[in-house]
Amino acid sequence: MDNYNVSAIRLAGRLLLGSMLILFLQGCASNAYETVPRSTSGKIQQVDSGTVVATRTVVIEGEATYVGRSSGAIIGSAVGQTAGEGSGRTLAAAGGAVVGGIVGGMVEKEMTKKVAQEVTVSLDDGGTVVVVQERKDVGFVEGDRVSVTQTRTGEAHVSHAHYQSDGIY
Fold this sequence. Notes:
Pfam families: Gly-zipper_Omp. By secondary structure, the chain is an alpha+beta fold. The protein is built from three helices and five strands.
C-alpha cells in the first residue's frame, strides 16, 4: 500500500471520527429549560384549558439535511479513493461519494427521529384538539388538566396546568 492510500484511509478515519464526535456532542447538549421557537418571543398566544381524553406514543420522523448527506459523501469519496488506480480510483471515489451521500442522509434521518406523544384534549369551551409534540419527562395521561397554547400560525403546545392555591386550575 502506497503513502497515498494510507493517507486517504487516515483522512477517512478522521472524518468519520469527527462526524461521530459532533453528533455525540449534539446529543449530549441539553439544558434544564424547555426551548421554544424564536418566532414565539413577544407574540400573543391563545391559551385554552382542558382535560386529556386520550394519548398515544408516536414517532416524529427524522430529517435528512445537507449535513448528513455531505458528511456521508465526503467519507464515501475518501473511502472510494482507496480502491483501484488511475481512472478506476476516480470512478470509485465518485461512486463512494454518491453512495456515502445516500447512506449519510439515511443515518441522519434515523438519528433525528423523536419519540413524541399525540395528546387529545377536550377543551373547557367544548372543543377538542389533538397536538403531537416531542415527549419529555413523564408526558400526559388521561384525566390530566392541561393548558393548550396556540400561536397565530397554528403551532400548539400542551403543558400541565398549574394549580392555584384554592385548587382551581
